[in-house]
Amino acid sequence: MKKIAPLFVLMASVLWGSMGIVTRYVADIGFTTRQTAAVRICSAAAVLILFLLITDHRKLKIEKQDLKWFLGTGLGSLFINNLAYAETVQRASLSVAVVLLYTAPFFVMIMSILFFKEKLTLQKVVALLLSFAGCVLVVGLSGANAGSNGAVTLLIGLCAGFGYSLYSIFGKVLVGKYDSLTVTVYTFIFSSIGTLIICQPASMAQRIVENSSKMPLVIIGSVVTLALPYVSYSIGLKYMESSKASIISSFEVVAASLFGVALYHETLDAYNMIGIICVVSALILLQVNFHKNT
After folding, report:
1. Which terminus of the chain faces fewer neighbouring Cβ atoms within 10 Å, N or C?
2. For residue 157, which of 245, 74, 86 has the smallest C-alpha distance?
3. Where would I find the EamA domain in this sequence (predicted)?
């Protein structure tokens, strides 16, 4: 399983990369930014709960002492990440928001060394820098700005990256004890509670009723681009180091760009292509075993 663990993380990054398709569809219905996040997270949570109730309700059982870790993945990671990222997008350009979001692997690497005693190797450092540089080139920062209050925007954007990184830390603790579906479902349950508090649920419910014919597609899209990638990432995280998993997940930026080209006729310039090569090179580098006896 260890050999194919990176493939689960890579699959998760591709599914996350397709998230923009569903997000655009939900936003076009008329939901606010926070409501869009709430609809997607709550839809995914409902489907996951129903699935476990039908297939194996025992996976819904958790121990009280582990609630703090589930609160960490749900509120500390998924909720904070979504909230801070949405706020950053409103304050600055999308490219700035994406680059700040992908400071996450730096946080993961530092925390993995401190808490999991992972080794800091030259291979990881080079892969991390390659993937981050690649993300910057893929999204492009020419003409981008951090808005009128750059310091506050920077701080909020870093919070998005930090929140994103926490799943690789708290999730690593949980996947050693629980099934990946259990970890994912409780992550979404706690995150749903957070999003419902801040999204004006009454007006959101009214809009859902008014657009009930469109909701099945929203639910399916939320499961495919949000629930499934978290399950897949959790499986991969169980069998590999958090720092490596976080770096591999940066392929999400490449996947999102390729989906944009395929579905929305967006174009890639030379810098974008170099960025894609950098990210892919980082993924390949992580799979090379320099200590293998020949």
Report:
1. C
2. 86
3. 5-139, 154-286
Provide Rg for the chain, Cα atoms.
19
Note the pLDDT tens digit of each residue in 18-76. Answer: 998 998 899 899 999 899 999 999 999 999 999 999 999 999 999 999 999 999 999 99
The DSSP output letter for 225 is I
The torsion of the CA quartet 58, 61, 66, 69, rounded to 10 degrees, works out to 80
- Please, are residues 42 and 199 in contact by the beta-carbon 8 Å criterion? no
Q: Counting beta carbons within 10 angstroms of the beta carbon of residue 224, is it exposed (0 to 12), middle (13 to 18) or buried (19 or more)?
A: middle
Q: CA-CA distance, 294 to 289, in Å (whole number)?
A: 11
How far apart are the C-alpha atoms of 104 and 101, rounded to whole Å?
Answer: 6
The Cα–Cα gap between 289 and 286 comes to 8
Both structure tokens of 246:
């976080």
Taking only the tens place, the pLDDT of each residue in 80-116 is 998 998 888 878 877 788 888 999 999 999 999 999 9
Q: Phi, psi (5° rounding) for residue 61?
A: -90, 125
Alpha-carbon gap, residue 112 to 246, rounded angstroms:
11
CA–CA dist 227, 16 (Å, integer) = 10
Distance separating alpha carbons of residues 251 and 27, to the nearest angstrom: 24
Domain ranges of the chain: 5-287
CA distances from 91 to 57, 139, 151, 155, 158 (A): 43, 17, 11, 12, 13
What is the spatial distance between Cα 203 and Cα 201, in angstroms, rounded to a whole number?
A: 6
Q: What average pLDDT does the structure give for the chain?
A: 92
| Non-local CB neighbours of 200 within 8 Å, separated by 6+ positions | 32, 34, 35
Task: Tokens for 94, please give them.
Answer: 């999308």
Question: Tell me, what amino acid is at 35?
Answer: Q
> Do 174 and 27 contact (CB within 8 A), yes or no?
no
* DSSP state at residue 18: T
